[in-house]
Every structure is written in structure tokens, then in C-alpha cells.
Amino acid sequence: MSDPSLVEDVEAAEVDRSAETPALGIFANMHPIGIVAAGALIAAVIGHFAFDTDRIVGNMSWWHWLVLVATVALSLTPPALNAVRIGLESIGTFTGKLVWIGAWFIFFIQMINVVTRYLNPFFEQDILIGELTSLAWQLFAMVALLGLPYGVKNAVNPRIDFWWADWSERRKAWLDFVMHTFFFLPFLYAMNILLIDFAASALGRKRGDGSWPDGWRVWESWEVSTDADQLPFGPVKALILVGFFLFAAQIVAEIIKTGFMLMGRREYGDVSSGDEFQRIE
After folding, report:
1. Are 71 and 34 contacting, i.e. CB atoms less than 8 angstroms apart?
2. Backbone angles phi, psi at 242, to 5 degrees
3. 122 domain residue, yes or no
4. What is the dihedral of CA 231, 234, 235, 238, to 10 degrees?
5. How far, in Å, CA of 232 to CA of 253, rounded?
6. Distance CA 74, CA 81 (A)
7. Smallest Cα–Cα separation from 102: which of 140, 129, 132?
8. CA-atom Rg of the chain in angstroms
9. φ and ψ at 232, to 5 degrees?
10. Residue 150: how many CB atoms within 10 A of its CB?
């Protein structure tokens, strides 16, 4: 017979409670993202008034200031910040439903393509529909782009390393918070800025003077494949911007989540004890 007290001690040792107490006292009253935003505000003020620089830190737009100030304010009220995180993650839930619908559409469209391909020799006329093939490829692109936030939210992205599984939740949260905040989010911000003009051009805006085509039949100016019976590429090329924007929104939600883990607010971290912090080894 095993000693019940020994079993309880072993079970208690297996529970990772590293995220139940704050790592630093400064996190007791402010979410880590608020500290980062406050530092960015200080750097922006110094860069704007003390140095003559053309970098963004000294020449921020009004909405940059608004976002930073709002972030600092929200970081002082965990329930409100958690509500923002839930709202951002609901985007991934919604796009996940669209992804599944799109996947079924791709399946049926490709099934029609296969059937018509093999039945085509038995008819005197061509029954292949090129537009369906083009639609299937564009739907596949839509699934990939809209599936980005869904994939991050549900942690379907594999993480392969030799150390992750043995780390505590606190250390995992530190790694994700630092990498997402200082490396991943700036990259996604830059991509969204660069893709604005790309998406506008794909939808018909002229590159020279920035004007839009006359009339309401704007789709006539969209790029079309040189292959026969192909659909215009304008919408799916513009969808790249939408995909990266939704991707950035979900990464912000992940930053908020990991920040709560660093605060010791596990109830807002939304991480169960047995899911390896939503990673696949």
C-alpha cells in the first residue's frame, strides 16, 4: 500500500505554480505591456523635443500617441485589459469558422474539377470550368490568411526545441512576452504599413497619382491571370493586408495573456496547467 501523504506530495510537486506569484513587484499594479508603453512614451517625448530625428520615435502620428496612452491606462485595470484580450481573441474564433467554411467550399469545388476533368473526354464540348479552379486557389489563399489568428489562438503552430517542455510557466511566459513584444509585433506593424499601398493598388488605385478608376466598375482594373478563364486577383491580394492585420491583433492578445502570467494573474492568463502553455513539442 502506498502512503497517501507521499502521493499528495508528488502530485503537489507536479503542479507548476510559478505563475501564481508575481515575478517582480512592479508587476503587482501594472501589466508589463503598460511598462513597455510607458517607456515608449518617454522615448517618443525625448525623441520629439530633445533630438531632431526623422525616425518614427520622434515623429509619431496622433494615433500612435493615443494607442500608447490607452495601453498605459488599460494596463492599470486588469479586467478592462482582459476584456480587450477576449475581444481580440474572438476575432480568431470568427475567422476560424470562416476557415472551416472555406475549406469545405474548396473540397466541393475541387471535387467538381476532378469529376469534370475525367468526364470531359466523353463530351463533344469542353465542360471544364476554369473559373472554378481559380476560385479554389483563391479560397485556399483565403483559408491560409484568415487562419493565421485562429492558428495562433489555438496553438497549432509547432514549437520544436530541447528546453521548452522542462521550463516553468513563468519562464515560458517571459520568453513569449519578450519575443512577441520586441521582435514579432514590430515586424507585423511594419508589414501592415507596407501592405497598405500594395492592397490599394491591388484593388485598383493607380500607383502614380494615387487616384482610383472612374466609375463603379472598379473590378475591371484588377489584375487578371494570363491563364484562360481566371478570376481577377485584386481581392485575394488585398486579403494579404487583412490577414496580417488579424495576425497582429492575435499577437497582441498573446502579449496580454503572457503579461498576466508574469503578473501572477493566472485567471486572466487563460492557460490550463496541463497544456504546456499552448505549445506542441
Report:
1. yes
2. -60, -45
3. yes
4. 150
5. 34
6. 5
7. 140
8. 25
9. -60, 150
10. 23
- The total domain count for the chain is 1
- Amino acid at the residue 153: K
State the residue for C-alpha cell 515586424.
187
What is the domain range of residue 252?
A: 85-269
How far apart CA 249 and CA 236 sit, in angstroms, is 20
Q: CA of 113: how far to CAs of 5, 43, 260, in Å?
A: 65, 57, 49
Q: Is residue 265 within 8 Å of 257, Cβ to Cβ? A: no
Answer yes or no: is 30 within a domain. Answer: no
260, 27 Cβ separation under 8 angstroms: no
Asked whether the beta carbons of 239 and 142 are under 8 A apart, the reply is yes
Tally the C-alpha atoms within 13 A of residue 209's C-alpha that lie toward its C-beta.
Answer: 3
| pLDDT, one tens digit for every residue, the chain (281 residues) | 445 554 454 444 455 665 566 566 778 889 999 999 999 999 888 888 877 777 777 788 899 999 999 999 999 999 999 999 999 999 888 888 999 999 999 999 888 888 887 777 776 655 567 778 888 888 999 999 999 888 888 777 666 666 777 788 888 889 889 999 999 999 999 999 999 999 988 888 877 777 877 777 777 778 776 666 678 888 888 999 999 999 999 999 999 999 998 988 888 877 544 444 444 43
Write the DSSP assignment of 131-200 as a string of letters.
HHHHHHHHHHHHHHHHHHHHHHHTT-SB---SSGGGS-HHHHHHHHHHHIIIIIHHHHHHHHHHHHHHHH
29 in a structural domain: no
CB atoms under 10 Å from CB of 218, counted, come to 14
Residue 9 lies in a domain: no
